[in-house]
């Protein structure tokens, strides 16, 4: 079995759902899913797995050494995939402390519990074990318009408290390999989008605000560039790296889809204009409004994912056009999910349903 951390959030939940689906030849391998259930963790994301004996959910913190040690001893995973993190740049600017606690201290404790478990494993389990750390392109800093895309050897130049905390966690993972021999892999991915994306991030925020008749806030001039990858493609890349990645290596994951934010928002509006036209016949674009820029806002990210393609044969399956259409459709088809997230109803449900601490649910 494998241990997934942070598997109630956006990418982690997509990863667990995909792992236990026909998309994965190893779909019968069990998953223990540990997440703290912060505001970004939503057990409704895992509803399709209710009653599925292959999935065990545990509420807990990656910083809880005793809990991790107990889970590892009990379930004996062959791999750990670490998604657990505070992930939102704007929140990191308002309050960096949680980012340091989870992304840095939490990763340290997870690594230490993993090292203790892995060191005592007999062969061949010890050699086969993997710790895969999920990271971000933001650790590389910001690019000028004509700079080449980030390769894996680009120097680390994190600019926000979030990216600094992720960079620190990447360095810890690297050091645990170099010093202790822990069999690690790291992936650095660009901006994901798709189903289950919490509407604090650009694309889901624009969709839900547009439908609610609210303003669509563009930071600054809207010409900041991100590379966008459909979340299911990120999940398939992680499965591939876990399967065949070289120990101690890092792999960039990207969609070859560099786009300025304003273009992304226009595309979302145009899709909504076609799929859910407004009663007054106007375009959702009329709701676009410019707001104060994010402090320290990185201007451009671009990912060179050639290493993953040439070494491991991975390529994204979706283009931006197909992925964004699926995404907008998913939000239109899941108004209840959106309503629960916005009202916080899922959190009330969690506190009613589960007590604090470690609650195992299958
Ligand atoms: P998210 O914020 O949607 O979900 C985070 C998950 O981690 C939630 O389930 C939350 O409950 C859990 N969590 C938070 N703190 C925890 C702790 N201390 N212990 C255990 N669980 C904890 O995040 P996401 O967007 O799904 O990102 C997942 C990972 O992928 C993160 O490491 C992030 O840095 C990385 N990443 C994200 C993107 C992106 O575009 N969203 C791109 C590249 C890399
Ligand atoms: O690059 C990978 C990173 O992508 C991940 O590591 C992060 O976890 C993830 O949150 C994401 O970070 P960004 O800061 O790029 O994502 P966000 O959706 O917050 O913003 C995307 C761009 O859109 C960014 O340039 C800021 C801008 N933006 C965002 C919001 C929420 C706006 O213009 N208006 C908004 O309201």
How would the blueprint of this fold be written?
Elements: E1 2-5, H1 10-19, E2 31-35, E3 55-59, H2 65-75, E4 79-82, H3 89-94, H4 97-119, H5 125-128, E5 130-136, H6 161-180, E6 184-189, E7 191-193, H7 202-211, E8 216-219, E9 225-230, H8 231-244, E10 250-253, E11 258-260, H9 261-275, E12 288-291, H10 306-312, H11 320-333, H12 335-343, H13 345-353, E13 360-361
Parallel strand pairs: 1-2, 1-4, 2-3, 4-5, 5-6, 6-10, 7-9, 8-12
Antiparallel strand pairs: 3-13, 9-11
Helix pairs in contact: 1-8, 2-4, 4-6, 7-9, 9-11
The structure holds nicotinamide-adenine-dinucleotide and 2'deoxy-thymidine-5'-diphospho-alpha-D-glucose.
Residues 87-89, 136-138, 190-191, 201-202, 205, 217-219, 224, 226, 261, 294, 301 line the site of 2'deoxy-thymidine-5'-diphospho-alpha-D-glucose.
Can you characterise this structure?
42% of the residues lie in helices and 16% in strands. It is α/β, with parallel strands linked by helices. The model is unreliable at 354-362 (pLDDT under 50). The chain has a domain at 2-193 and 230-255 and 298-317: NAD(P)-binding Rossmann-like Domain (Rossmann fold), CATH 3.40.50. It is built from 13 helices and 13 strands. The two termini are 15 Å apart. Helix 4 (97-119) packs parallel to helix 6. Bound molecules: nicotinamide-adenine-dinucleotide and 2'deoxy-thymidine-5'-diphospho-alpha-D-glucose (DAU). Nicotinamide-adenine-dinucleotide (NAD) is lined by residues 5-6, 8-12, 35-38, 40-41, 61-63, 83-87, 102, 106, 134, 136, 166, 189, 191-192, 198. Residues 5-6, 8-12, 35-38, 40-41, 61-63, 83-87, 102, 106, 134, 136, 166, 189, 191-192, 198 line the site of nicotinamide-adenine-dinucleotide.
């Amino acid at each position: 079995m494998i241990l997934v951390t942070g598997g109630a959030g956006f990418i982690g939940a997509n990863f667990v759902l995909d792992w236990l689906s026909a998309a994965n030849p190893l779909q019968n391998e069990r998953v223990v899913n540990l997440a703290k259930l912060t505001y970004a963790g939503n057990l409704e994301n895992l509803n399709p797995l209710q009653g599925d004996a292959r999935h065990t959910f545990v509420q807990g913190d990656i910083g809880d050494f005793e809990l991790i040690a107990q889970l590892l001893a009990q379930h004996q995973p062959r791999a750990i995939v670490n998604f657990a993190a505070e992930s939102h740049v704007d929140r990191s600017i308002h309050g960096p402390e949680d980012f340091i606690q989870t992304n840095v201290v939490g990763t340290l404790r997870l690594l230490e519990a993993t090292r203790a478990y892995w060191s005592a494993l007999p062969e061949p389990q010890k050699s086969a074990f993997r710790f895969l750390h999920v990271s971000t392109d933001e650790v590389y800093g910001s690019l000028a318009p004509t700079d080449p895309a980030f390769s894996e050897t680009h120097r680390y130049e994190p600019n926000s408290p979030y990216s600094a905390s992720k960079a620190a966690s990447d360095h810890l993972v690297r050091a645990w390999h170099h010093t202790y021999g822990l069999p690690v892999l790291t992936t650095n991915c660009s901006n994901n989008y798709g189903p289950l994306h919490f509407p604090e991030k650009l694309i889901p925020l624009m969709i839900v605000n547009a439908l609610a008749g609210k303003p669509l806030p563009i930071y600054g001039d809207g010409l900041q560039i991100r590379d966008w990858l459909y979340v299911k493609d990120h999940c398939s890349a992680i499965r591939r790296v876990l399967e065949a990645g070289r120990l101690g290596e890092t792999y960039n994951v990207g969609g070859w889809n560099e786009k300025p934010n304003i273009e992304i928002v226009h595309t979302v509006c145009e899709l909504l204009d076609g799929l859910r036209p407004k009663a007054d016949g106007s375009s959702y674009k009329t709701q676009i409004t410019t707001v104060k820029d994010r402090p320290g806002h990185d201007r451009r990210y671009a990912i060179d994912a050639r290493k993953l393609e040439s070494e491991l044969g991975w390529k994204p399956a979706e283009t931006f056009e197909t992925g964004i259409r699926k995404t907008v459709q998913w939000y239109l088809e899941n108004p209840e999910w959106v309503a629960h997230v916005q009202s916080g109803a899922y959190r009330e449900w969690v506190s009613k349903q589960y007590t604090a601490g470690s609650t195992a649910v299958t």
